[in-house]
Amino acid sequence: MTKPLRLVIFGRQGAGKGTQCDQIIERYGVAHLSTGDMFRAARDAGTELGLQVGPIMAAGGLVDDEMTIAIVKERLESDEVKASGFVLDGFPRTADQAAALVEMLGDEGLHGAINLDVPLDEVTARMKARGRVDDTDDGIAQRLALYDEQTVPTINWFDEHGMLVNVDGLGTESEVSDRIAKAIESMIGDTGDAAG
Ligand code: ADP
To answer: Is there a catalytic annotation at residue 17?
Structure first.
């Protein structure tokens, strides 16, 4: 039996990760585990977690590792996600989150991580254009700075462990998704499993 795909996707805010995740989900039938979506859903539903994370998100900060790891762990341990595989989007974002992920997955591990690479000036322009509630100029600047500070070292960690594939995120949606498909095929080929 082939094992389901287990993937992490990195990319700066505005790099087109959401669109590309949709394509990956359709192609591989995996669950989309987006911590941003989970926190936004909690905020909109007004749950206890939502009341805690709402102000942090509005200020462009990061939710603390403990809460973030707990919400991901719950999903990763569900039978549904174990059966379907997953693409993790927005997690891990810090060194502690990366360490927790490796521990949670244990021997199962990951097929790898993709870094959707789009230059800083291009993502800034895209974010200003899309005008989401949390996309104020200050919010954008702060989230991009945090990304360089915390997430780039996390990406480098995956790279140093031979698990990272860089994908050029400039071009049309289908050009980029073709590149991502090739990157995934190379990961599956390397490890010899994952359902297609
Ligand atoms: P963006 O990529 O625009 O920051 P996301 O949808 O990834 O948007 O996340 C929205 C917000 O949710 C973040 O600004 C942050 O406050 C919180 N968040 C999401 N993922 C994480 C994470 N892994 N660790 C801490 N906070 C997170």
So the answer is: yes
State residue 134's pLDDT score.
74
Please compute, for residue 114, the number of CA atoms within 13 A of its CA located in the half-sphere on the CB side: 30
Q: How far apart are the first and last CA of the chain?
A: 12
Catalytic residue among 93, 128, 130, 182: 93
Please, what are the domains in the chain?
Answer: 6-189 (3.40.50.300)
Instruction: Supply the pLDDT for residue 32.
Output: 97
Q: Distance from the CA of 170 to the center of ligand 1, in angstroms?
A: 22
What pLDDT is stored for residue 1 in this prediction? Answer: 41
Q: Which two tokens stand for residue 195?
A: 């359902």
The protein residue whose alpha carbon is closest to atom 18 in ligand 1 is 36
Task: Write down the catalytic residue from 17, 43, 75, 130.
Answer: 17
75 is a catalytic site residue: no
Whose C-alpha lies nearest to ligand 1, atom 16? Answer: 57
The two structure tokens encoding residue 18: 């959401």
Q: Give the pLDDT of residue 193.
A: 60
Which amino acid type is present at position 66?
E
- The confidence score (pLDDT) of residue 142 equals 87
Q: Using 50 as the pLDDT threshold, list the residues of the chain that sit under it.
A: 1, 196
